[in-house]
TrEMBL record:
This is DUF1885 family protein. It comes from the Bacteria. Coiled coil: none annotated. SUPFAM superfamilies: Rbstp2229 protein.
Length: 146
C-alpha cells in the first residue's frame, strides 16, 4: 500500500518551515491531549489514539521520522520534511515546506486511517493546505477571494 499525503505550509500558514523536533513535539502534544481525554472517560484512549513509537532517521538530505508500531493493526508511517521551490501568483519564487506522509509497503488500513487523522490534526494546528491520500485538498487557512 504505497500512498502519499502532504501538508503544504503556504504563506497564510501559521509558520513557514518546520523541523523534525517540532513535529515530534506536535505528536507528543497529541499523545498528551488524547491521554487526558482517556482519563476523563476512564479508558486508555491515549494508547489507542497513538499506537506508535517515534523513531528518528536522517536519509540523505531530507529530514524524516518514522512512526513504528508492533500492535496488531498497525505497522509504520513515514513522515519527511521536504522543501520545494515554487512560483507565487505574482511570479516571485519562494521556498515552500511540505510535510509528506508516506505509507510504505506492508502498511495496513489502520495506518492509513491514523495517517489521515494525524494529517488533519497537523494541518489544522499549522493552518496549512492538506493534500489527502485520495487526491482531495483541504484548506485549513483563511483563503482570500481574488
Amino acid at each position: 500500500m504505497n500512498a502519499y499525503a502532504s501538508i503544504k505550509l503556504v504563506p497564510a500558514s501559521k509558520i513557514d518551515t518546520i523541523t523534525t523536533t517540532e513535529l515530534k513535539e506536535y505528536f507528543l502534544y497529541y499523545k498528551d491531549i488524547t491521554a487526558k481525554t482517556g482519563d476523563q472517560v476512564d479508558w486508555t484512549y491515549g494508547q489507542a489514539a497513538f499506537p506508535y513509537e517515534i523513531i528518528d532517521s536522517n536519509e540523505k538530505q531530507a529530514e524524516q521520522i518514522t512512526l513504528y508500531s508492533e500492535k496488531e493493526r498497525y505497522r509504520a508511517i513515514l513522515i519527511s520534511i521536504q522543501k520545494e521551490k515554487i512560483m507565487d501568483h505574482d511570479n516571485t519564487p519562494r521556498i515552500q515546506t511540505n510535510i509528506c506522509f508516506t505509507l510504505p509497503e506492508g502498511a495496513t488500513f489502520g495506518d492509513k486511517g491514523k495517517a489521515n487523522e494525524y494529517c488533519k490534526f497537523l494541518a489544522k494546528k499549522l493552518q496549512a493546505e492538506l493534500h489527502l491520500f485520495n487526491g482531495r485538498v483541504m484548506y485549513y487557512y483563511k483563503r482570500k477571494l481574488q
